[in-house]
């Protein structure tokens, strides 16, 4: 069984506000302590991406990384970016 903790856009987009930062940090720490894979949704800029990296979030998705893709385009994207996608947030 794969367990995943997903952060929604409303927290990520406002992560630079102290209370949201603390909620996101706590949630990441809690998820990690439970052995969950952490996924941040709605990452739209480099600042948010870098802050999530500092908070040890290991996976992200959002417009900063790529716009929504059709299935065939997604497959091409994965093939073209295979190595960089795996290590892009580590």
Task: Give a verbal description of the structure.
With 90 residues, the chain is mainly alpha-helical. The protein has one domain (4-87). 50% of the residues lie in helices and 11% in strands. It contains 5 helices and 3 strands. It has helices at residues 9-12, 18-33, 46-54, 71-80, 82-87; strands at residues 4-7, 37-40, 59-60. It has a 3-stranded parallel sheet. The chain starts with a strand and ends with a helix. 14% of the residues are buried. The mean pLDDT is 78.
What are its keywords?
single chain, 90 residues, mainly alpha, three-stranded parallel β-sheet, 50% helix, 11% strand, globular
Summarize the structure.
Helices cover 50% and strands 11% of the residues. By secondary structure, the protein is mostly helical.
Rg over alpha carbons: 13 Å
The overall average pLDDT, rounded, is 78
The amount of helix comes to 40-55%
What count of structural domains?
Answer: 1
Order of helices and strands: EHHEHEHH
**Quaternary:** single chain
Largest sheet: 3 strands, parallel
Structural class: mainly alpha
Shape: globular
Task: Name the poorly predicted regions.
Answer: none
How many distinct beta strands?
Answer: 3
Strand content: 5-15%
Tally of DSSP helical segments:
5
N-C termini distance: 23 Å
Strand order of the largest sheet: 1-2-3
């Amino acid at each position: 069984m794969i367990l995943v903790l997903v952060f929604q856009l409303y927290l990520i987009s406002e992560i630079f506000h102290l209370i949201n930062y603390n909620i996101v940090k706590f949630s990441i720490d809690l998820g990690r302590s439970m052995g969950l894979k952490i996924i941040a949704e709605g990452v739209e800029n480099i600042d948010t991406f870098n802050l999530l990296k500092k908070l040890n979030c290991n996976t992200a998705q959002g417009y900063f990384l790529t716009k929504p893709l059709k299935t065939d385009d997604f497959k091409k994207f994965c093939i073209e970016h295979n190595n960089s996608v795996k290590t892009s947030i580590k």
